[in-house]
Ion transport domain-containing protein
Amino acid sequence: QVAKRTLAKWQGKHPFENIEPRTINLQGLCATKFPGRRWDDLEQPAKVDMIRTALRPKHSLINPQSLFVKRWDLIMMAVFAYVGLVTPYEVVFLTDVDWVLFGANRFVDLLFVLDIALQF
């Protein structure tokens, strides 16, 4: 009973569902790699290699569960905390340009640009 509810809950929500090929034209794959040969005549390793190549995503994906993403998220949380604390202080109390804060803010801007690039 619980397994059925869990399956129904998660069914159709696979994160890579939209980028995986639904159908593969095996004879078409064979014709492009081995012109003049039929799919049924190929050896098993050649078939496996062609299917593996056809299923491989055409663009790179970042695994959201990877250690890199977890560390990046921690860095971004620290940057958000910095912006939330330092920006109001700068706006209210500072009248002159503080070059150290200016440089730190440009570094934070760079991190935000990198985060945007990683997200898309």
User: Anything to note?
Assistant: Helices lie at 2-10, 26-33, 44-55, 67-93, 99-119.
